[in-house]
Hints:
The protein is mainly alpha-helical. The protein has helices at residues 11-38, 49-60, 82-90, 94-107, 109-118, 122-129, 133-140, 143-147, 150-207, 212-247, 252-284, 294-301, and strands at 68-70, 76-78. The protein is built from 12 helices and 2 strands.
Amino acid sequence: xxxxxxxxxxxxQEKAIVQGKDILASKQDVLLKLGQAQAFNFAAKLLxxxxxxxxxxxxxxxxYKGLTYTDPDGKLLxxxNWGECCKSILGSSQQHVDEKLxxxxxxxxxxxxxxxxxxxxxxxxxxxxxxxxDEQALVIESEAVEVGDKEAVKDLIEELKAKHKKETxxxxxxxxxxxxxxxxxxxxxxxxxxxxxxIKEQLHQKKFSPNKWQNDVRDFFTSLHKVHNQMHExxxxxxxxxxxxxxxxxxxxxxxxxxxxxxxxxKLLVEQVALSWNTIENHWGHFQASAKPxxxxxxxxxxxxxxxx
Length: 309
């Protein structure tokens, strides 16, 4: 074949050559951008917004893939991930680079530039990121940032940090107290549920017990005696008031008013008792022949201490 003779290539080969040139041009552009970033020492200073935007673009579009670098042994290697790019090409850790990018995204370009001018350290910015959004805004929009007073900004961050820490501790204490109360309520509810279940079981046993009617009699008599005891106690108190009217020295007008009211109120009470008795008599008067005190019924049924009801 003559030296000047042209070699025919297929369309597929031509397309591959074009793509290869495009890829090479793309990688050269990435290397140029990385070279711009490499010109700055990560350990010595924080990168500017423009420089970080370059790194963010490379990271976001994964343009670092396929780049090559030489390891300490002189071996040529290919970059496969962002962490490898940071370490082997930028000469910094992925955590260090990502923290700078995070600060830019979190605080915005304007404050980030101001932070660089004030030379706020990464610890200060990390503490600022840990604050709630509203407290971050207090710092970012503060007069101290506007005038570039680094120490005032750091003091404000520390003040808000301490305030937030105290509020968090208080909230934890409140949550702990709420949890303790909730546990106590649950335990009480559980105890009540057990007691209720026991009562249900006892009632169920009574319901199907061959002596159920006897237990029903005792339960009713217990309630009846409780009411009567209350009534007897009330009558005793009425008589005590009667004694008081007789022997306690008081003004005549006061005594007359008290006696009149005492007489009228007790007359109403007796009338109510009489009305209740008439109702009982009308309903159960036909049991008069067999009527006897409840204590006697209980004794006949064999209940011990029936008279103590």
